[in-house]
């Protein structure tokens, strides 16, 4: 609540400063210096301006209360829904725009309409002795002043709201409103629009103000301003507008292009394409941003390499632990991983996919760590109860690897570990999956695993020859094993034999 109260205080101070600069500093000074009227009429006009200012403050205060209400709920209520929080955060981010809206409507209209009404009434009843044309000048001046005030308030409010928005996001994270926070990360005011309008207004405001002051002064002195004066005024005004538009476009495009370059490289980082911005062509603060981006990419690449090393070390430790229990399983896992990669190559997998496939295959039997020694290391045929224990190893393996954090690093390895004993006809285990419902890695590893199991020597039997194993794979093609995986593997074996002959 402290941040909220401090923000309200700063907004009030900003509004007071903006009002003094715009309404009092520019408006009243212009009226006093430009108007050639009696002191009593001038005093009456200042009085009208004061009463109109009070009316404007009341109307604008009501509008401000309406705009701030959703934000106040977040800080005053103990229980806030995610939807309420979302709209409050949107309101906070849009608050500079709402400030401009308040100045354009309740501020400008709340000030000008009562002032015009009172001034015209006093002129009509012959209490105020000024020309009606002054009312037109006043309206134009009020519009200029409102635009100046809106621009000042926009940038002051933009700066003031940032700590409040940060505090609201902290509150949102405490309540678990992460999706609501992410949903508000949109562009509310494009940089091109913000810079363009600001430069344009700064460029033409002094000219318009000077034109208005000169017109009022010459009108008060009874001079004819529709001779050569307006011709030069229009020329100067057009030149100012064109120059401001050109300057706004050049400045905004320069900033926008620099931002687009950074966003382009950042989008590549999101896709894990870690490319440095090698050509630092900037001579302003974007040069530092580019250097910072390059340092960030270097740090990410370094961390990514360390994560890969840690994951590879983990895999080595796990396979070594399995080796210590069952020498057959160790060599078996290595060979299955190599066979699986050969199948993956013939499926057209990328290097990254092959790396994940290799890791999944080399860990496919890791769940056997949880199988009792008297079952895992038994020389003879297993009983039904003992085989039921063996059938648990895919799930045990998945559960073991799930303990790795962050889980994203090993998430892709889990399907192959769990499903490498599934069958195409649905008679496999542990889930009885059928056909393409079996994950791709599981279908690949199943073929590699079966071939190596058939051709490897065990203490209780000698491994069969390659031709016999191939014939069994062909018999189970489309029923026990995926037909495409069998074809790819047999193609690999044939290529290997041809290489031996040659």
TrEMBL record:
Domain HAMP stretches: 253-305
Cellular-component GO terms for this entry: plasma membrane
Lineage: Bacteria, Bacillati, Bacillota, Bacilli, Bacillales
BP terms from Gene Ontology: signal transduction
Organism: Anoxybacillus tengchongensis
The HD-GYP domain, residue ranges: 307-502
Protein name, UniProt field: HD-GYP domain-containing protein (C-di-GMP phosphodiesterase class II)
Subcellular location: Cell membrane
Signal peptide: none
